[in-house]
Amino acid sequence: MASLWRHTRGVQHVLCAYLSISVVYSYNIDLEHPLVFRGPNSSFFGYSVLEHYHDNTRWVIVGAPKANSTYSSSVHSPGAVYKCRVHSNPERRCTEMDLGRGSKPRESCGKTCQGDRDDEWMGVSLARQDRANGNILVSSGTQRRAHLTKLHNANHEHS
Questions:
Q1: Mean pLDDT computed over every residue of the chain
Q2: CA–CA distance, 89 with 112 (Å, rounded to integer)
Q3: What stretches of residues are FG-GAP repeats (predicted)?
Q4: Span 11-18, average pLDDT
Q5: Cα-based distances in Å from 59 to 37, 122, 139
């Protein structure tokens, strides 16, 4: 009985080792031929990264939440999102995506907040629809509640 137990235990170890190796090899990174994309200095380029497939082209979508945006030139460090073509791009060049935000530094975002685009951290988070030609979702990390602060200060002035 002890011999059968040792044999079963040995088979389990071999099976476990085989499964571990197959899992490791199923997700590997090419360390010998990496694709390296670079963005603006001090922009946190690469803070978020997403692989995307659109119009028969593979892209790497890269968030740079502290970047200055070409499309929002009057705003200080609003953040930017870049698209980098994976194939047919020997210079590894990335181009900024126009997110349609414009150059206005402030916009109302409802009754209780005032949007402040300076240091907005746009591109801090990226998501995509899991299908070819799906949409990309880009979000920022900040939303300032200016109205509530003003209301709080007004209450203290009248006390």
A1: 75
A2: 45
A3: 28-93
A4: 66
A5: 11, 19, 19
